[in-house]
Amino acid sequence: MTMRSSSSGSGDRCPTTARVATGARPHRTTAVSPAASASRLTGVPPGSAGTLRTRRLPPVCCNGLMQFNTYTVAGAHIAVWLVNHPEPDQAALAAQLRSHDVHEPQVTVDDALALNPWAARLREVFESQTVAEKAELTDALLLAADCRPRLVSHGPGSPFHFHYAPVETGLAARVRALTAAGVAHVIDAGGGSRLRACDRAGCGVAFLDTSRNGRRHFCGVRCANQVNVANHRLRQRPVGAGTAG
């Protein structure tokens, strides 16, 4: 069975770009039959004759937004949050980690302080202009975090999932490894150009662009409107206005 994103059943659809930009928890997934999945991948209706040829597609959600919602990229959402909260208090950081099911998210003062310089290094990835630069910086983060993927289960009946650093290394080390791996997974999935910082001068809010066309340049509507209004006023100014006579 393959997996496809769906609404939660409570009327909430897929997460908006604003929620993703702040690291909001992704919605759940539901199973899809193999025939329906094959039809979605190939464009061939179920039951049609012909050879089934699958191809890798970017993850598209039910409302057309890109989805980066698996546990493997939870670190990317946490990375966004850290960049936008470079000096978090213990409670806020613990709540963010808990929302992404990070194991044992008990945050100490030392943990929060240790992640401050890491947030600055993550920001460099989001502010880089090319995917090649983002990949190079992220590769350095993977090495610096000593990222070592392992399949871990937290008890009988619990599903296996990736841990990128042993629990005994401490929370700050685990967060460094998880965020580096999460950003790397986004780049590996072809979404490197979607790791961005807001284009409005003086803003700099980081976000993970989940729009359909991947051309979002602002963290939200307010910044987009401010830039658009300023550009419109500039275009309306008479030629030579404001210059010395």
UniProtKB/TrEMBL annotation:
Transmembrane segments: none annotated. It comes from the Bacteria. Residues 1-10 have a biased composition (Polar residues). Residues 1-51 are annotated as: Disordered. Residues 194-236 form the Zinc finger CGNR domain. SUPFAM superfamilies: Jann2411-like. It holds the Pfam family zf-CGNR. This is CGNR zinc finger domain-containing protein. It comes from Trebonia kvetii.
